[in-house]
Inverse folding.
């Protein structure tokens, strides 16, 4: 990576991988998923005028010290329409500058539509990275990779049971997700491409990391989904590219009472300590 | 399909395929893509307070007589953030009841997130159907298929050049998109599943329709993208399940002047006539 080059190109903005390295500080960074579900919010928050925002602000206040990144999942805001979108925008503005913001929308569409999504996520919402879906191929991903300072995490291996339906199919002698990883590497010309790899498939990790080579990682599935953190850490020990481990429910809903912020902060600190120790 | 059963279940709401059949009237229906791009809007529209909405209202006024469905592409609204989302909601409310509304967002995510997207598209935005991405597997699609009166069009073969990157890979002796179609058929328990198949791949049509069997179709790629309408019509002649052909740019931007509504209406009528003749 040519640090000076990226400095010149973007008037001080760093290349996305460099930014990611700086926030994870050489280890594995904690990403806090901001997925507020109304029914799960503490009762006193539910009655506020903007409950998703009120919840997020307290979560951010108590967790930002331990978080390398935040990942709002767009679905949980879109479910509330205009009011949800407004609270998403305000949430994003409240995230401290030293944390990266990953718009988790798993977008994917052809040419001009993908360009519009990139504008939405990187310019209008001002997020630093986005999760994207590979099914439509490389030309649908390229619009997300035009800015060196913004990153895209391409879905490779997802943490849900049905993920295997397509991802594990053997295509031309290797599983589909391996083709996705090769495609991601071909697209990584500006060092701004990452992979989403679920922590619930530990048997894949060794091969997967060998193939992923210089791609950064976003790892959901730890916590509520039951992925094995220690197994994952062993595999990541010698991986040279930054990784973020995401936790949502285990942090957001650590307590359902008035102390939910404090409890989220404690849960975030514990997980962060496990990641760096 | 058990008509009476669906009547009882949804208090008068029809099953999605039955609704689709009623709007395409036994032939191929026209779907008008509502993909407003600011730079392409006529100058006098661009200066209005809500330009996307002003544009859409006139497009709908002149085209609804010929349209079986409208398909707002969410990206073009999200690019404008809150203001865009507001204009999307107003656009959807302005579409006449006799036309179906397909939310084109190509969403796809795991369990609870997919449920939130289904709420967003089917309840909050009150659309009749959605386009969805199959990469995350069947459990990520099921939340979109819980209501008999709402449909989901699963991406199978897309019209962009890069579509082949994954979709044409040969997995266990057949191309990936064939696995997607089989998965779609397995999910079609309530007759509310369709496929998105691009019109730009005419060599695939014969086999594809044989495999698709009882799945409805949403066909982009006619018009600006250059798909061959006559070749497609020949193949669809004996297909028993309803199909929608989508056109966006060729209708929306038929004229860039003050007569854009009239020109869009003329383009919609000509294409509708070609579809039914």
């Amino acid at each position: 990576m040519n640090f000076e080059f990226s400095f010149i190109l973007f008037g001080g903005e760093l290349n996305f991988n460099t930014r990611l390295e700086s926030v994870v500080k050489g280890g594995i960074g904690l990403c806090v998923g901001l997925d507020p579900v109304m029914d799960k919010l503490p009762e006193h928050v539910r009655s506020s005028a903007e409950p998703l925002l009120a919840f997020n602000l307290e979560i951010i206040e108590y967790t930002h010290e331990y978080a390398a990144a935040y990942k709002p999942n767009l679905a949980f805001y879109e479910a509330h329409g205009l009011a949800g979108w407004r609270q998403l925008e305000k949430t994003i503005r409240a995230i401290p500058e030293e944390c990266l913001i990953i718009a988790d929308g798993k977008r994917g569409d052809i040419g001009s539509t993908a360009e519009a999504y990139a504008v939405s996520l990187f310019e209008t919402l001002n997020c630093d990275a986005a999760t994207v879906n590979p099914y439509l191929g490389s030309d649908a991903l390229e619009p997300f990779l035009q800015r060196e300072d913004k990153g895209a995490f391409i879905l490779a291996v997802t943490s849900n049971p049905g993920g295997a339906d397509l991802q594990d199919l053997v295509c031309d002698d290797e599983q589909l997700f391996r083709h996705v990883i090769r495609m991601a590497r071909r697209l990584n010309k500006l060092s701004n491409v990452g992979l989403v790899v679920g922590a619930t498939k530990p048997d894949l990790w060794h091969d997967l990391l060998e193939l992923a080579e210089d791609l950064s990682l976003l790892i959901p599935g730890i916590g509520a989904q039951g992925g094995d953190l220690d197994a994952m850490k062993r595999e990541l020990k010698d991986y040279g590219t930054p990784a973020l481990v995401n936790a949502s429910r285990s942090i957001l809903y650590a307590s359902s009472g008035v102390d939910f912020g404090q409890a989220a902060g404690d849960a975030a600190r514990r997980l962060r300590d496990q990641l760096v120790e």
